[in-house]
Sequence to fold (403 residues):
Amino acid sequence: MDNRSRLQTLFEDILLLTDGEFRFDLRREDVATWDSLAVVAIATGVEETFGYHMSEEEAVGIQSVPDLMRLLEVRGISFAE
Amino acid sequence: MCRISCVCSRFEASRLPSDQTVWMLEELLAQVPGAQGVLVVTASVADRVTGALPYRPLRLDEVPVGVPWLVVAGGGRLIDEVKRWRVERSPVTRIAAIATIWGSGAEASPIAVTHGAAKDIAIDPALRPDVRVRWAELADHIPPDLARWACGDTLTHATEGLLSPLGDDALRLELAAVVQRMVGGVSDPADWFDLSAAACALQARASVGLVHGIAHVLEPALWADGRRELARHARLCAAWLAPVLRFNLRASTKAQERFERYGIAPAHLLGTAAHFGNPQDVIDTTDVVRQLWPTIIRDRCTRTNVALVRPGDIDQLLRELS
Fold:
């Protein structure tokens, strides 16, 4: 499984998305389940999946899937197709 | 009484990491004259408590708004009702809480749980009782199984608080000390009351995890299904703590790292957890856990578990039962 697939599965599992609901341009305001507890779960899931421990400020600052991809790409985790 | 060998010296109340006032029974009697307080007491200890305290016993719905002191003696559910009553009806009233069993930590925490079709959890500093009164002899009447499950509830609060992603290093150090004390062995009920109060007050500053997510979802479901003996919070926490710990250790390196950092041996913790719970209770509730898994993973406690809990994780969790 590549990093894009891992990221998609992570968001589908945390936000409880059904098939077709995930998009790589998804924003926090697009999804009702992306609440403050989902922020905690995303931080937990990113560490489990990609091995990167987000700071509290970074976790709270993630407002979209592209935000997270940019954060991780700076740390050498590529999402290139 | 808990059937655990005591291998450590007695936990010192003065070391409890809480700024809550703690009184012995004599101090309550000295500080709160009979005319200043009323008493709300649970039925199981009513004779003993009303015989020892000078306060007028009332049902909660009879307590006059504005009474200076409300002394409550009971389990977590009654104490939580009193806490809510104070916040909603009589903010000037001071509460002295006497726990008759450990586990919930309601006498020390700013949390109140409402029991309905689903459990609702309120967190507010104003909910915390002003004074916790130590009267450990009230635990003499507790049946051994209830005491053992209450120990499991206490250990669950401390362990899930320690593992919570919402805690910080200072908080985890305090919770680790509580866990280590419990794993080391505790036999004196007075110590269990103190440990329970500490565990609950501390975890309220972080969060709990999957064990509580399972318990909160199963309690109303089992109750509605007529399986009321199984629908006890402490019993469910005690039963599911060991399997969930094994799940967490397998699903994420974070739990193992945290135990290592704070000097806790997972094998000892698992052994203690297994001692407190009934393995058969896990087997008897597996069907409900599987059926309600979509609700369990949405529970706010589950969502702050140390390991991410995913829709497909139910099979992995159930594999940890063997």
About this structure: Residues 1-17 of chain B have pLDDT under 50 and may be disordered. The two ends of chain B are 28 Å apart (CA to CA). The longest strand of chain B covers residues 69-74.
